[in-house]
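From the shared-data thread, chain only:
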Amino acid sequence: MPAAASSQEITGSNPKLKKVGAEMKGEREQDQNRNKDERLFKYFTGDRTIGVEMSQSATVASAAAEFIAEGERASIGEPLNRAYFRRPGERPAFLVLRDGREERPVQREDAGAIPAGPCLIRSGEWLLAPEVNGLYASWLFSETEAQEERILQRIYYRLRASAAALLDSADGLWAAVMLPFMPELADQPARLAALQDAQLEALFAAVAERQRLGGDCRVDLLAPYPASAAEFAAQREFIEGVAEQTLGHAYAAACRIGAVILPDVERTAAGEIARIADFLVLDGAAGEAAPEDAAGGFAKAAEEILAAVRSVKPAAALLAAGAPAAYALADLYRIGLSGIFCSAGQRTEALLRAACLTWIARQDHADTAAGGRL
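Structure, as tokens:
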């Protein structure tokens, strides 16, 4: 495969190919699809683009109305196919998405529109819930293998209940679930893998039950903090293996699998991970500095990583998460990032700023086009 992928490739929408290595599989899938149109997130009539969500929380002159009208005009007559891709030569909307589940009055049955992108779910937080935290602590300090397996089974049932609650909510229409990464297990890879296996089984069991009842849901998976392409390839194979065992080959082939990476990831490694990942999330939540202080460094790291990623895969989807991402929104928009995930407390301001930046960019484009005709 050439060093830089074509701008006509689709990320993560191909059948699973039988190969020896996960990296070769990802590269061959890209080669087969380089003649298809791409856009980062595809939205259709009723989809919740940033303009739609912005209009529900605040008003920004005509930017919201223009954004909504354009999205609906472009989407008329298109089938439902939510995927990570973009149209060549056109900058897609900068997305402001949810980081974590929120207490929202809108229930799934009344949610109506399909979201423009996923809600980021950090499943490790489920282990910190009061009903699970005690079991998790007991599992960490279990004295025998039999006791460890027994407690892990009880944790599985609690995680399955949490997964079912997610899929029953409006956020379950499209969720990107990050596998648990617990710092206390960083030097115990076997136990971390066992915990992630229980999480995946619980999630896929909830998906199977939802499908059995005729419900609609989309769950994308995120491998936590791989430091190299080989590490991500192993995590991807692990996720696909559990998906195939739980839900079958068809689901495993269609499942989108991305990676959450840290700002200090080696730049070349980020590009190689992007080659075989369906999408990437740059996470600023792990930093120790205050978000407003970390914003400048985060934006600089994002620009370097984006350049490395796009040099390998021009159509790659790269989003940012964590409080620094919201503070650095203007810089992230300027460098061409796909969007951000942000918490409820930052969401309204982020939506307003993104809508204003979109409106200003469109006015500049219109003025440039008018000047060129004179």
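The radius of gyration is 21 Å.
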